[in-house]
C-alpha cells in the first residue's frame, strides 16, 4: 500500500488528526479555513466534511441544516456555492469554504481525510466533484464516509484514491434513516466487502471490535474517532493505529 499511496498511507498512523480542523469555542470555528491553518501549523492531520451545494460544488460543512453554524434556516443543499461562501460561521468572520479552497490552504503540510456526506440513493455527483478537485491537489488525502455505496463508487471509478470506511454504533443523521437491523449490521462491519476500503475509521463506541481486529491483523489500519481526552485514546489505542481528536492536545 505504501508504494501505491505514498505519503497518504504513511500519514494514516501519524500524526493525530484534528476533527473538523483545530477549532475551539473561543477560537476558529469548525470546518473553517482558520481551523485548517491552525491544524497544519500545529503539525496535525485534518478531518473535514464535504457535501454538495445546489449548483454542484463540494462545500466543507458538517450539518445538513445550516442553523447551528450560521444562523440561517434551511439545508445547505438548497443554496448555491456563492450564497454559502458568503455565510459567516458561528458569528465570526470565517465563511463556509469549498473543498478546493480548503486544500489550497493546507497544501502538502497535512494529511486530509475528506468525509463524503453523500446521502443514500444520491451517490455519484458529490464523489465526481471531489475527484475533480483532487486532480489538482498534490498533498496527501483520503476519502472517508459511512455510505458503503459511496466507497464502492470510488473503488469502481477512481481506485487510485485512498478510502476509509466509517462506522459506529451511535445513531446519527444517516442512522435515523436506516432500519435498526441495518445499523446493527454496519456496526458489526458487515458492509466491508461491499465498500472495499483500505482502512477503517471507527467510533469509540464500537472499539474494541473483534471484526476490526481481524481486518487490522490482515493489514487494514484502524483510526479511532472522536477522542476528546487522553483517557479516550488510552482506552482504545492498543486496538488502533491513530486517532481523530477534538478538544485536547494529543
Describe the protein's topology.
Elements: H1 2-5, H2 7-10, E1 17-19, H3 33-42, E2 45-52, E3 58-60, H4 67-70, H5 81-85, H6 99-106, E4 112-116, H7 125-134, E5 141-145, H8 148-157, E6 163-167, H9 180-187, H10 192-195, E7 199-203, H11 210-217, E8 222-227, H12 230-236, E9 242-245
Parallel strand pairs: 1-2, 1-9, 2-4, 4-5, 5-6, 6-7, 7-8, 8-9
Antiparallel strand pairs: 2-3
Spatial order of the strands in the main sheet?
A: 1-2-4-5-6-7-8-9
- Write the CATH architecture name: Alpha-Beta Barrel
Percent in strands: 15-25%
What portion of residues is helical?
Answer: 25-40%
Assigned CATH class: Alpha Beta
Q: Characterize the biggest β-sheet.
A: 8 strands, parallel, barrel
What's the total count of β strands? 9
Provide the domain count: 1
Provide the CATH topology: TIM Barrel
The total count of helices amounts to 12
**Overall geometric form:** globular
Concise synopsis of the structure shown:
The chain has 250 residues and is of the alpha/beta class. 33% of the residues lie in helices and 18% in strands.
Architecture overview:
This protein is of the alpha/beta class and 250 residues long. It has one domain: Phosphatidylinositol (PI) phosphodiesterase (TIM Barrel). The chain is built from 12 helices and 9 strands. The chain has an 8-stranded parallel beta barrel with strand order 1-2-4-5-6-7-8-9, surrounded by 5 helices. Helix 11 links the parallel strand 7 and strand 8. Helix 3 packs parallel to helix 6. The longest helix has 10 residues. It starts with a helix and ends in a 5-residue tail after the last strand. The model has no long low-confidence stretch (mean pLDDT 95).
Amino acid at each position: 500500500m505504501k508504494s501505491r499511496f505514498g505519503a497518504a498511507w504513511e500519514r494514516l498512523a501519524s500524526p493525530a488528526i484534528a476533527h473538523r480542523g483545530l477549532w475551539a469555542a473561543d477560537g476558529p470555528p469548525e470546518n473553517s479555513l482558520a481551523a485548517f491553518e491552525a491544524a497544519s501549523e500545529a503539525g496535525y492531520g485534518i478531518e473535514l466534511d464535504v457535501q454538495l451545494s445546489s449548483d454542484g460544488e463540494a462545500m466543507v460543512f458538517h450539518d445538513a441544516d445550516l442553523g447551528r453554524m450560521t444562523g440561517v434556516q434551511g439545508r445547505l443543499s438548497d443554496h448555491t456555492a456563492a450564497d454559502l461562501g458568503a455565510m459567516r460561521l458561528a458569528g465570526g468572520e470565517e465563511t463556509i469554504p469549498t473543498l478546493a479552497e480548503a486544500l489550497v490552504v493546507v497544501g502538502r503540510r497535512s494529511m486530509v481525510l475528506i468525509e463524503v456526506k453523500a446521502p443514500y440513493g444520491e451517490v455519484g455527483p458529490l464523489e465526481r466533484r471531489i475527484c475533480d478537485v483532487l486532480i489538482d491537489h498534490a498533498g496527501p488525502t483520503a476519502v472517508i464516509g459511512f455510505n458503503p455505496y459511496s466507497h464502492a463508487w470510488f473503488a469502481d471509478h477512481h481506485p487510485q484514491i485512498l478510502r476509509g470506511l466509517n462506522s459506529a454504533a451511535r445513531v446519527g443523521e444517516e442512522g435515523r434513516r436506516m432500519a435498526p437491523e441495518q445499523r446493527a449490521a454496519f456496526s458489526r462491519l458487515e458492509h466491508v466487502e461491499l465498500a472495499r476500503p483500505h482502512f477503517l475509521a471507527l467510533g469509540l463506541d464500537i472499539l474494541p471490535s473483534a471484526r476490526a481486529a481481524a481486518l487490522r491483523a490482515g493489514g487494514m489500519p484502524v483510526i479511532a474517532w472522536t477522542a476528546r481526552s487522553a483517557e479516550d485514546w488510552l482506552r482504545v489505542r492498543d486496538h488502533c493505529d491513530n486517532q481523530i481528536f477534538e478538544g485536547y492536545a494529543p
